[in-house]
């Protein structure tokens, strides 16, 4: 999809505001900076800041990359075993996240010290989890099972990011592989299987 010039400028402005927020927050603490300082650092007016974000916590989180529609369609319409299609789906999502790994690292630092920012991110993740549940309903007829799978997928993403943040020599993809393998083994244990690989 090609963005119009206006859409591209909006993305660039949002990115500039988020980056300025994160840099100032890491330097001074999010609770110690003002929206006026953020706007000045981003090179925009305070009014422009509020056209993009409701508060500094929302600016720090930005708009996290959600699951792509084409990836959800591939998961929904997939014919391979669900575990294979889910892993492929997560690999694609990690590729997207890796494109902005510097932002991801800064967001992680802010999240560790700001409860309000964590709440905003949790809201985004709830929407993604609910959307993924609907997507999985095409493959899993029981809504509670689809919701449990969707919850595990979003949890795997969060855990992979956490591992990647704490083991800098690991790529996001490698962190995902480690967490995914743990989930599969845990699933076998819960199912009563002795296969612990």
Short description:
This protein is 76% helix and 0% strand. With 197 residues, it is an all-alpha fold.
List its traits.
197 residues; mainly alpha; Arc Repressor Mutant, subunit A; 10 helices; DNA-binding; DNA-binding transcription factor activity; transcription regulation; transcription
CATH topology of the largest domain: Tetracycline Repressor, domain 2
* CATH architecture level-2 label of the largest domain: Orthogonal Bundle
For the CA atoms, what is the radius of gyration?
A: 19 Å
Portion of residues in beta strands equals under 5%
What is the succession of H and E elements?
A: HHHHHHHHHH
Class based on secondary structure composition and strand pairing: mainly alpha
**Total domains:** 2
How many distinct beta strands? 0
* Name of the top-level CATH class of the largest domain: Mainly Alpha
Helix percent reads: over 70%
> How many DSSP H or I helices?
10
**What is the H level of CATH, i.e. the homologous superfamily of the largest domain?**
Tetracycline Repressor, domain 2
- Specify the oligomeric state: single chain
Quote the average pLDDT: 93
Rounded to the nearest angstrom, the distance between the terminal CA atoms is 42 Å
């Amino acid at each position: 999809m090609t963005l119009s010039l206006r859409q591209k400028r909006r993305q660039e402005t949002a990115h500039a505001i988020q980056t300025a927020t994160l840099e100032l927050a890491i330097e001074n603490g999010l609770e110690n900076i003002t929206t006026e300082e953020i706007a000045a650092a981003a090179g925009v007016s305070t009014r422009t800041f509020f056209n993009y974000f409701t508060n500094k916590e929302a600016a720090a989180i930005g708009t996290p990359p959600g699951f792509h529609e084409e990836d959800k369609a591939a998961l929904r319409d997939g014919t391979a075993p669900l575990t294979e299609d889910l892993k492929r789906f997560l690999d694609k999502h990690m590729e997207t996240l890796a494109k902005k790994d510097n932002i991801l690292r800064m967001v992680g630092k802010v999240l560790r010290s700001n409860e309000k920012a964590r709440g905003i991110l949790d809201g985004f993740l709830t929407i993604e989890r609910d959307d993924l549940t609907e997507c999985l309903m095409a493959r899993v007829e029981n809504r509670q099972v689809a919701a449990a799978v969707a919850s595990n997928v979003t949890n795997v993403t969060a855990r992979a990011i956490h591992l990647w943040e704490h083991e800098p020599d690991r790529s996001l993809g490698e962190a995902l592989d480690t967490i995914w393998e743990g989930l599969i083994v845990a699933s076998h244990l819960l199912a009563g299987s002795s296969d612990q690989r």
